[in-house]
Write a structure and sequence with these properties.
The protein is an alpha+beta fold and 238 residues long. It has 2 domains: 61 residues, no CATH class; 162 residues, Butyryl-CoA Dehydrogenase, subunit A, domain 3. It has 6 helices and 9 strands. Strands 4-5-6-7 form a 4-stranded antiparallel beta sheet, covered by helices on one side. Strand 2 and strand 3 form a beta hairpin.
C-alpha cells in the first residue's frame, strides 16, 4: 500500500514497516504550473530556426561559406584573367608564326629549311616525299594550336560564366594551355633531334632560325598560362 500524507510518501512492503520517503520537487512551486508552456515555447523557437549555439554553428561562424566571394579578391582575379588572356594570345601568335614561316634552319641566308619547303640560294623545293619527322612536327604543332584555341575560348567564356555544366571553365582553360605546351614541346623536340641527326653535326652547331626560336618561346608561355589559370580555378571567388 502506498499513500501520501503532508507531502510525504509512505510505502508498504511485505514483512516490513512503513518507511517514510521524502518527495523531491525539481522545480520551485511558482514555476510548476508554467513549465509546460515554457517547454513548448522553447521547442517552437528551435524549430523556427533560433537554434542554440552548437559546435556546428560555431564552426559556421568561424569559417566562411566556400561560395562566398570577397569583394577585395575580385579585382585580383580579374587581373589574372586578363593576364592569362594576353599570355595565351601571345603563345598562339608565336606558334602560328613559327608554323607558317620556313626559317627553322638557316645557313648564312643561302639555305633555308622549314616545315613546308626547303630553299637553297632562293630556289625552293616542296618536300616529296615528306620526311617522317616533318610530319610529326606538323601534327603536334597543329594539336598545340587546337588546344591553345580551346584554352582561349574557355578563358573568354569564364569571364561570363564560371561553369559549363559540372565542369569549371577555368579548369578547361588550364588543361588546354598545359596540353598546348606539351604538344609544342614534343613537336620541337622531335624536330631538334632529327635535324641534328641528319646534319651530322653537334646540336650546338646547328644553325636554327628565328621560326624555330618562336616555336620554343610559345612553350613556356603556354605553361605559364596554365599555371595562372590553375591559380584562378583554386581561388575562392571562382
Amino acid at each position: 500500500m502506498v499513500g501520501e500524507l503532508d507531502g510525504e510518501i509512505y510505502s508498504d512492503k511485505p514483512s516490513k514497516r512503513l518507511v517514510p520517503q521524502r518527495k523531491v520537487n525539481l522545480l520551485p512551486s511558482g514555476l510548476r504550473g508554467n513549465f509546460l508552456p515554457l517547454a513548448i515555447s522553447s521547442t517552437l523557437s528551435v524549430g523556427a530556426g533560433n537554434r542554440p549555439d552548437t559546435p556546428e554553428r560555431e564552426n559556421a561562424l568561424c569559417f566562411p561559406d566556400p561560395g562566398y566571394s570577397d569583394p577585395e579578391i575580385l579585382p585580383a582575379m580579374t587581373f589574372f584573367r586578363i593576364l592569362s588572356t594576353i599570355l595565351v594570345l601571345l603563345s598562339l601568335l608565336l606558334l602560328m608564326i613559327a608554323l607558317g614561316f620556313d626559317f627553322w634552319v638557316t645557313d648564312n641566308s643561302s639555305i633555308q629549311i622549314g616545315l613546308w619547303k626547303t630553299c637553297i640560294r632562293s630556289v625552293c623545293f616542296q618536300y616529296s616525299p615528306v620526311p617522317g619527322y616533318i610530319d610529326a612536327t606538323r601534327a603536334f604543332l597543329f594539336l598545340a594550336l587546337i588546344a591553345g584555341f580551346l584554352s582561349l575560348f574557355a578563358l573568354i567564356a569564364s569571364i561570363f560564366r564560371s561553369h559549363l555544366g559540372p565542369v569549371a571553365l577555368t579548369l578547361v582553360s588550364a588543361v588546354g594551355s598545359f596540353s598546348a605546351g606539351l604538344c609544342a614541346m614534343i613537336a620541337l623536340a622531335v624536330f631538334t633531334g632529327e635535324v641534328a641527326k641528319t646534319s651530322n653535326v653537334p646540336l650546338g652547331q646547328v644553325p636554327f632560325g628565328w621560326s624555330f626560336g618562336l616555336g620554343w618561346a610559345s612553350f613556356p608561355l603556354f605553361l605559364i598560362t596554365g599555371a595562372v589559370m590553375m591559380f584562378v580555378q583554386k581561388s575562392p571567388s571562382s
